[in-house]
Give the backbone structure.
Amino acid sequence: MFVDPDGQGIFLLEKAKSQGVLQGIEKGVEKGKQDAVENLITELSLTDDTIARIAEVSLEFAKKVRKDLDNSKK
């Protein structure tokens, strides 16, 4: 049985759990942006500059997604 007389362990556990949830949300948002950029590339054949503006991502992010798509076709 775990005994935590000062409650510090429970606080740390809750903090770690909250951080894990936030990281999961961030990964989900990132995946959503990646999916949106992939769709703009494959369905509309837009330029990276236009995609970055529409999807509200950096130009570097749009270029990376395009490069990853090109590499996956090989």
